[in-house]
Amino acid sequence: MASPNQHRICIGPKVPKGAENPITLLLPSPSSGLPSRYVIQEGKLYEMQVVDPEGLRSWFVGDTIQSDGSLYIITPIDPVFMILPILDIMRQQTAESQGRFLVLHDIFESDQYTSLRHLALLHRIEDFLSLVSEVRTGSMDRAKTFRLDDAKALAWMKQKVQVLVDRFESVKTLTDAIAYTESLPDACRKEAITQSALKLVSAYLSESWATKLAGEYEFPELDKMESRTQLPSFSDFGKRSGMDLDEDPKAKKEVKKPKLSVGQRKLAKANTTGMKPLSSFFAKKT
């Protein structure tokens, strides 16, 4: 916790006057599983990313000097990205069983990750769960139960990709990619745009889900063109715009893990002896 005189410099959505105080959560990233910061305010979920100067820098705030020179960026995140790995673990699927159905509060119950319970308080949380789950509605005295449905989850992911495809021209960080695709034949351009959108969505998925999603797409025209002309991968333009779109052109369907933030890199370098996997956070104490 910061002291009363310690400030943090944040860039985030405009908060209405009189809004409730934000709740800061430490939760596993849906893509890497590493501890990451999230914020809930007014029933909405945000992710917090830290731009760490990795040096001795400070902020001048009014007539004070704040020793933390980091910049905190708070942006909205679709709760379904956070829900997917939780549902995947909590259903306890086996070769013999599709897994169990759970009521809302049991889904977010964790003795070790206590912040998880706050996700149950998000606005329209049951609607978010329903997007990727099979839902059973009980009698009047029984609540709804949910179990992850792989087919619905993949359909939801593909819909996310399509939304980005439809809005491709308006994504400002894709300036280089847009200029590149304009010079391509129509068939190649459509595939290149879809490939870029796929990479963006995959950055919020675990490696296993990103691989499943990638298996739903093929890019035959791009493959032909790159093999004939040895063009750079479309994802090279993502690198110039600061986006994580790395891809090995020799493995078209391989989806690499997203780059880690500075904080996550520090955690990754730390001694992990004795640290528990993500699934352990959802196991009750015995």
From TrEMBL:
Query: Domain Rnh202 triple barrel, which positions?
Result: 21-78
Q: Name one GO biological process term.
A: RNA catabolic process
Keyword Secreted, does the record have it? no
What main location does UniProt list? Answer: nucleus
Q: Which residues form the Ribonuclease H2 subunit B wHTH domain?
A: 81-213
Q: Which UniProt keywords apply?
A: Nucleus
User: Where does this one sit in the cell?
Assistant: Nucleus
Q: List compositional bias (Basic and acidic residues) regions by residue number.
A: 237-252
Q: Quote the cellular component terms of the Gene Ontology held in the record.
A: nucleoplasm; ribonuclease H2 complex
Q: Does the keyword Nucleus apply?
A: yes
Which residue ranges does the record annotate as region Disordered? 233-271
Role summary = Non catalytic subunit of RNase H2, an endonuclease that specifically degrades the RNA of RNA:DNA hybrids. Participates in DNA replication, possibly by mediating the removal of lagging-strand Okazaki fragment RNA primers during DNA replication. Mediates the excision of single ribonucleotides from DNA:RNA duplexes.
Q: What is the name of the protein in this document?
A: Ribonuclease H2 subunit B
Natural source organism: Dissophora globulifera
Gene symbol of the encoding locus: RNASEH2B
